Amino acid sequence: MTDNAAELKAVASDAKAWPFAEARDLVKRLDGMNHDGEVLFETGYGPSGLPHIGTFGEVVRTSMVRHAFEVMTGAATRLVCFSDDMDGLRKVPDNVPNGEGLKADLGLPLTSVRDPFGTHPSFGAHNNARLQAFLDSFGFDYEFVSSTDCYRSGRFDDGLRSVLVNYDAIMDIMLPTLGEERRATYSPFFPVCPDSGRVLQAKVIATHPDRDAITYLHPDTNAEIETGITGGACKLQWKADWAMRWFVLGVDYEMAGKDLIDSVRQSSKITRAMGGTPPIGISYELFLDSAGEKISKSKGNGLSIEEWLSYGSPESLSLFMYAQPRRAKRMHFDVIPKTVDEYYQHRGKAASQTPAELLENPAWHIHAGTPPSDNLPVSYTLLLNLASVCLAETPDIVWNYVSDYAPGVSPETHPELDRMIGYAVTYYQDRVRPHKIYRRPDDEEAGHIAALVEAIGALPADADAEAIQSAIYAIGKAAGYENLRAWFQCLYEVLLGQSEGPRMGSFFALYGREQSIALMTGALAGELAGELAKDGDAA
Fold first, then answer.
1. Of 405, 435, 465, at which residue does a domain stop?
2. Residue 95: which pLDDT band, with cuts at 50, 70 and 90?
3. Are residues 395 and 522 in the same domain?
């Protein structure tokens, strides 16, 4: 163990960051089991759809807990990303090509459904490949495991036998949680029809543990059919399947959304009935849209991972997932700039922090213990507002101002800044430009802005952002604003065409003093609001 690793391990037991709190709970669980061998972390994926932002959140958060646990204990670990690809296709997704052709495959395991994209042997294989490419693009360390492979290879056979032996106990767990109609036909087992290959929701009328078999009523013919349960002849229902997976694979840690709390509870009971110990894991809150409503894929009211990554870095998305996982959070476009800037603030602190401080730094968790220690010379928010004011069509327009503000800084010397400028221009074009509304200042406000023009013009040539900010404050106070927030909002709405904005001293310094004076002079002449009106008339 290196000196640094030893230092981190020494302070990890007292770290307050939530991944360490989870790691400590996992240590307690393992101590009570006399656990030996690798510690297994798991995340689950339903491949009836493509990987999405929730998939990313679950894998990145689990990876953070895994790393915290490794630092704390030095134990060997694995992360399994499990695809429940033997589930029967219940409905044709709306977002696939050739959807009509899939209707004939309803009820088939996803790995037996034809691939509507025509690139893989099955729909399940296509989505599994997309999942792995998705995870690989973020550099996750994981092992992919297919439900179909586990069932058909016999890997799950002993687990299936355990479910059969404990059938009555499992029914006692599940039946009280079901409605009357569902109770009448419920069984943990879904037989796979030997003729059609479909996963059947069939009533089981007898169990035969002595020969690893069940008897069920075929839902179409009502015929009594005996079938084996091993080798892929049966698939378990969701909660029993989850429990059996934990039991067979020996899963120690798996987190799940708050909407699955009841499923976790029932599956844990089933695992115990089988003689196993269920994993522990955090129940994380779900995301909300801009109106505070729960994000729903069917409603389409959420923010996709592709949209986030059009406007912000993967690291910023990781920070969003890191922060307060037990708290429901708005996930909308307007959180991206703030989150990007927060990420760089955390990253910039890392080089000077003690080991104890590092373990509380989100950047340490995002980068698995090795965060870059540099920072951006210009914040993302400032870049975004600069792109907005100079109507940037391409990054080089923003670079013209940045190079004047910070001599010697270029795309070659600061590729990270170049990346952020690219994001800022795209965000401006897509999310800001269509919604900009400049307003004319009233007579009183125009007088205050004119005074600001004079004050900034009188500053020394080498005045920095702080000196400019002080001048802005002084004008606001002299103008009699009881709350300077109203003064800054006036500047945002008149000069930037938006209700919120950056620290204006920093913005004016970046934009350039002469250009800033010209901007204010143009606003006083009605040019900004006038140009907007012309654009609106043209449209």
1. 435
2. confident
3. no
- Provide the pLDDT for residue 286: 87
Query: Which pTM was predicted?
Result: 0.91
Residues 6+ apart with CB under 8 A from 110: 47, 48, 85, 86, 87, 88, 89, 122, 123, 124, 127, 148
Residue 410 is encoded by which pair of tokens?
Answer: 């270029």
- Name the CA dihedral angle for 368, 371, 372, 375, rounded to a multiple of 10 degrees: 140
User: For 175-180, which contacts have Cβ atoms below 8 Å and span 24 or more sequence positions?
Assistant: 177/262, 177/266
Q: Which pLDDT score, from 0 to 100, does residue 251 have?
A: 98
> Domain holding 4: CATH number?
3.40.50.620
- DSSP tag of 197: -
Structure tokens belonging to residue 388: 């907005």
Residue 235 lies in a domain: no
Find the angle CA(48)-CA(53)-CA(57) to the nearest 5 degrees.
110
Does one domain contain both 58 and 136? yes
The whole-chain average pLDDT of the chain stands at 92
Closest CA to 131 of 113, 116, 146: 146
Q: What is the mean pLDDT of residues 372-377?
A: 85
Backbone angles phi, psi at 168, to 5 degrees: -65, -40
315 is in which domain, residue-wise?
A: 288-366
- Both 25 and 72 in one domain: the answer is yes
Share of the chain above pLDDT 70, in %: 96
Question: Rounded to an integer, what distance in angstroms lies between the CA atom of residue 425 and that of residue 379?
Answer: 14
Residue pair 29/280 in contact by the 8 Å Cβ criterion? yes
